[in-house]
């Protein structure tokens, strides 16, 4: 569980719940037939080809192609993938569990040296801050594989590092003086350096992926790396600091949780629970209280060594954002304004700087996923704000997609083209299975009949307090939006709503009170940028739950709770990962990854179905993580022969390079978050 990083306070104090109790309505809608498919096919999904696959071989030989003629309506297409493994039982051991016929190995665990500046990882926790700056970070989360050749045996793995386990990071945990203040500079620098993103060159040799030490692509982005600001916030007074008086740069990326990628080959890392890293001991501004900036102390005490003789460039002072100078250029009152964004990284260019794409909003971003592409149409990016009662957003680019841009060698310029100018929207789910995307622009009408311009004077002011603007237009408060992903065949978008045990008033998209188990919602875009249609694909639940709890008819072989990581591969297989804390399911299994092929769940009329008692057997458990961990982050090679999955905050693992090897009873290893590479013993494709 990520309890250590999830902030349980309620920040959304608005009352955007304009729905009556709708559980009854919802239940009667459970087999709602999506009506958005035809619309979707017309607008964005035309021309997706799938040649017939009459083979009795489960291997999928055809993948969707980028549409080239977005005008002719065609019927939704269907994946030919058939899951070819038996759903595995739950597991509660210090090891991972996988289906028969597969093998799993540990790759790039925390502390793996990336270059010669780093000493080898030491099991006593004594590596230095300098070692950490040049080694793989801690608490792996979102991830993407970027191929370096057509053979599929060479590539770059980008890995998010969400937060740290200080007890594992240091020999005996963090050091404090008698006043509860941090005292050791190298410890704090090591913690900052364990955050961020790793770019790791990996190669397949003798059927095993290995990290290529000292490769020129290997690099770290940490909680201190200098990054550029782009979009509406760039060069505004909101970002003026003593370090960057012109508001053009910010230092570090923090709490990088879910991820995304772009059609032009860059990585997107998402800043989630960053507000607690900063403290304002004075009066909070409206945006600061809305997002939850800390008021008494920072999460790890990084500000404690502010003013130390050995401090460099205010590296610790910047986390205390209490105004102390005569103006913003003399202190760090605006330091937190440089956080809360989608950050773009070009993994192929080791000399490039990361860019914070502020047009996509500022909140606790879980992930960032682009919608189905169509030439000549805008690109859409989806991102959820993971806190209780927070919202789902999308950004629609002003620029329209040119497939030639996929091959540009100036990838950051492509980000400038598609991610700096556009319209940010927030979702409102209505009772009838349709919804509205509400623009967050100065002329957007608020629920009281005014406009956002009466509260905000610029688009940058809206971005700074994105959630506050969304409150005013009447967005639907959700049960903690986590990852979104897009079905490559139907174009339907799926979003995990992990849980919300504090919900006391249902709304149609979040129909369960005290939602301990979470659900996955999906939608299709409509004819205009402001329309969508939606339904709930599956509800998490314990198998033993009663009919009102186990709404999707799950059994032991697929019961799950708190869906979080979510990813389609290009074959149309949806991978669902969990970050669960509900005892009813943890008593049966550790966190896990399941698979299903949603586009094949159709009725006689070809309409997409949800997971129900009739279809639930199609949802299969593929992977279970070791004790105490969260399973998060999914990547797969273009040949589908290796899947990568991250294990975050394991308790007593890994014991060896073989991920399935159980740590012997009575032995305690220093736990290391790690990527697990999964291969099929016969060399075939994963999952089929
Ligand atoms: Fe970091 Fe919302 O999971
Ligand atoms: Ca996590
Ligand atoms: Ca997550
Ligand atoms: Ca989570």
TrEMBL record:
Q: Which Pfam families match?
A: PhoX (PF05787)
Region Disordered: start and end of each range?
A: 59-78
InterPro entries from the entry?
PhoX
Low complexity bias located where? 61-78
Q: What is this protein called?
A: PhoX family phosphatase
Originating organism: Shewanella aestuarii
